[in-house]
Amino acid sequence: MIQFPQTDPCFGATVLRQETPQNFSQREALLDLSFGPQRRRKTCERLRENRLPAPGLAFAAEENGALVATLRFWSVAAGDRPDALLLGPIAVDPALRSRGLGGRMILHGLHRARELGHSAVLLVGDAAYYQRFGFSRDGALNLDLPGPVDLARFLALELSPGALDGARGLLRATGRCAPEAQRLRAA
């Protein structure tokens, strides 16, 4: 179990706050820059499309009024476990990478998720990077995603001990559906 430090939403000149609808265009541009136009074809997108992020778990980092990083969590059921989150995407402006902003945002998001009572977080990402936050293959071993994925990159973190013990089955989106206007804008 990872210990979360008290988090401060100010990282020098960078301010972390809840994302707002006004961040939409800048967030989409940053995600396209970070992941390319193929990002919408990824398996995890099936769990995010036409959904809103988990309440209180969509973050925007800004410097001088410009969005420089984004992080979202999504409500999912992990097999028969109804209260799990999917982390991602996280994106940091290429000019600001390697300053630790992404790691601080992840710690802040995980801390907030635990404060809100969530029990587990799953993601698809680089194991070497996410290990330092406590993620491993262990809790995801008997879970599946709705599409192809490199299983070595399918990782889990229990925010509550035993939250994923015996979890089996497919990850399913359980979050709130996005309003029609938001769906059309994201298409």
Could you walk me through the main structural features you see in this protein, from its secondary elements to its overall organization?
This protein has a single domain (10-186), classed as Aminopeptidase (3-Layer(aba) Sandwich), CATH 3.40.630.30. The chain has 5 helices and 9 strands, in the order E-E-H-H-E-E-E-H-E-H-E-E-E-H. It has helices at 24-35, 43-48, 101-115, 127-130, 180-186; strands spanning 10-11, 14-18, 58-63, 66-78, 81-92, 120-124, 143-144, 154-158, 169-173. Strands 1, 2, 3, 4, 5, 6, 7, 8 and 9 form a 9-stranded mixed β-sheet that branches. The relative contact order is 0.20. It is an alpha+beta fold. Helix content is 24%, strand content 29%. A hairpin with a 2-residue loop joins strand 4 and strand 5 (81-92).
Name the CATH superfamily classification. Gcn5-related N-acetyltransferase (GNAT)
Order of helices and strands: EEHHEEEHEHEEEH
- Supply the helix-strand structural class: alpha+beta
CATH architecture: 3-Layer(aba) Sandwich
Briefly note the CATH topology name.
Aminopeptidase
Helix content: 10-25%
How many distinct folded domains? 1
What composes the largest sheet? Answer: 9 strands, mixed
